[in-house]
Amino acid sequence: MQPKKLNYLRTFLLGFGFFGVSVIWGTYNAFVPLFLANRFGIRPGLIGFLMTLDNIAALFIQPAVGAWSDRLQTRIGRRMPFVLAGAPIAAVAFGILPIAAALPVFLAGKIALILSMAVWRTPVVALMPDITPSKYRSQANGVINFMGGVGAIISFLLGAQLYEMNPAFPFWLGSALVVLAAILVFVFIREPKVYNTTPKNQRPNLIKSLKEILKDEDKSAIRIFLAIMFWFIAYNAIEAFFTLFAHVHLGMAEADGVRLLGQLSLLFVLFALPSGFIGGKIGRRKTISGGIILMALAMLLMAFLPVPFLTNVLFAVPVLGEVPIVGVILMFAGIAWAFININSLPMVVDMTEDILIGTYTGLYYLFSTMAAILGPNINGWLVELAGNDYSVIMYIGPIFMLLALVMMAGVTRGEAKVDSEFQEIKA
Questions:
Q1: Which residue ranges form the domains of the chain, and what is each CATH number?
Q2: Helix (H) or strand (E) segment spanning residue 287
Q3: Which pLDDT score, from 0 to 100, does residue 408 have?
């Protein structure tokens, strides 16, 4: 039976999965570059490379896991076994990072973390379109990313306070929260009971799907996947290097740079739900394109405005602390990222049929992971070539945002579909 409205309670409960993912990655991206630079004395170019070792592993795992989860049939569902296997291992590996005194131990924990996260990230994201009809997927993705943004805020704002007490505390909090999140998803989310009965030789296959996309006369799918890669290269510059940008270029304390990322995440959270409704109202492509333009402008402002102006404090509020001009710019970047990120996955999964949702989710992560490999490396080596000038990342980002905008201009599919059949699953 076609549901008359989005089941917000069930979607919020599912959002705890992405909440756990965001707590881990928020803490990881904020503090690991600082550990590499200050604890182990690693230069910027090598930091960029080390920040991508995990993504190289994920490049080969996440898409394949997405396709595998499309084919899997178990008593607890297609996606849930991956969540239960990956989350506990990720929690243990994450807790090891801040107490690793030797670089080899640190890197071993880092690789264990990404391998385990790669096992369950794609399946937990694929659960959203599994249980949500097409016309509500932008709104549902807004709810999911709202929860993810709450996780990012916790990792940045609370993490900054805990880091000042003990550098290990933000990581141990993340480990506890990711286990809690996995338990909540397992207890409260029920997967659809309709399994794939397609003949074996016609079942989802990642490589086959990618070949079909490349050969398709309508280039919408490959264009949006390339756009995803380009905008993630730009955004990964902020994720991987912003704390060093704030510390080295802006002259701020380490924890203050993390708080600035929290200010970005706060506006992302506030606009997560509205972005889904805007995408449903005016179209996903237009909403994403507007976000790309706004993000490029925010990065250009951080590139060209002088440091004393950027660091001028405008006001202070509880939790957020002091908000300088660069913090306000980052807030607009948070709005822009909500417009982009909330509507992109729904566009991807609505370019295909339901049987391939996990496969296309895997392709989404294939291209975003390629960006996560290229982005830190490109930006890290450019920073080093520029004499450790971290402002370079704000000049490079808008170039890739422009490339993403060009790709999006040719996308003609991916808007919400009219669902002819959809069985509502009770939470």
A1: 8-193+203-409 (1.20.1250.20)
A2: helix 284-304
A3: 94
Are the C-beta atoms of 304 and 371 separated by less than 8 Å? no
Alpha-helix residue ranges (DSSP H) falling in 35-102: 44-71, 80-96
DSSP 136-151: GHHHHHHHHHHHHHHH
Q: Could you state, in chain order, the average pLDDT of each consecutive group of 10 residues for the chain (427 residues)?
A: 66 85 86 88 83 73 78 83 90 92 88 85 80 79 82 85 90 92 87 56 60 79 93 85 89 86 86 87 93 96 94 85 92 94 87 76 82 84 88 92 95 73 44
Q: Residues 345, 141: contact at Cβ < 8 Å?
A: yes
Kindly give the interhelix angle for 8-34 and 103-131, rounded to the nearest 10 degrees: 160
DSSP 8-class letter at 75:
T
Rounded to whole angstroms, the Cα distance separating 378 from 102 reads 27
Dihedral class, residue 283 (left if φ above 0, else alpha if ψ from -120 to 50, else beta): left
Residues 371, 233 contacting (CB under 8 angstroms):
yes
Rounded to whole angstroms, how far apart are CA atoms 62 and 120? 8
Question: What is the amino acid identity at position 18?
Answer: F
